[in-house]
Amino acid sequence: MIADRLLGVAEFSHAHWFFGNLYEAIVKIPHRVAASEASRELPRSPFGAGSPGRYYAPIAPISAPAAIAALVTGWNHSSSRGWLIVAAASSTTGAAATAYLLRSINPELFFSPQPLDETRRKPLLKRWYRIHTLRLTASAVALAAIHQARTIRLRSHP
Fold it and tell me: For the whole prediction, is pTM greater than 0.70?
């Protein structure tokens, strides 16, 4: 069934997104990237060495669409519908938070020609981590809901 395959894709992509975001927060990747000087080897760009963008770009864009498509195609399966709604809503919330970071904070914080001075960098990092906490939470909820919906659907299709 197409909804089951979409749930598999959504589960994989959300696991990638969640654990990548968790790693980013634990080792403080934003602090490192924001403070780094530009060079030929380490350009300050979304896909330069050290930037997490190169790891997220291939998979992250399919997370929310896969969760939403799983909701649409699995709507008639009433026992997993609630979990599919939670997954799609959480995934969309996380995607919106990511879009906000990509458009409003990341360009100045990470991709300006030179690192910002500490007085400008510190408040941007603080805001980045607040929004990142929201998207980390949203991705965790989405991943758990997708897993639950997938488990319910797999049990009902032996």
Answer: yes
Rounded CA separation 100/70 (Å): 24
Distances 103 to 75, 87, 91, 128 between C-alpha atoms, Å: 33, 24, 18, 12
For the chain, domain boundaries: 2-156
Helix axes 78-100, 2-26, angle to 10 degrees: 40
What does the pLDDT look like over 28-78, one tens digit per residue?
Answer: 888 888 887 766 655 566 666 556 666 677 777 889 999 999 999 989 888
Q: Which of 6, 9, 18, 3 is nearest to 144 (CA)?
A: 18
| Residue 14 in tokens | 């959300």
- Cα(114)–Cα(131) distance, rounded to whole angstroms? 23
**Longest distance between any two alpha carbons in the chain, whole Å:** 59
For the chain, the distance separating the N- and C-terminal CA atoms, rounded to the nearest angstrom, is: 13
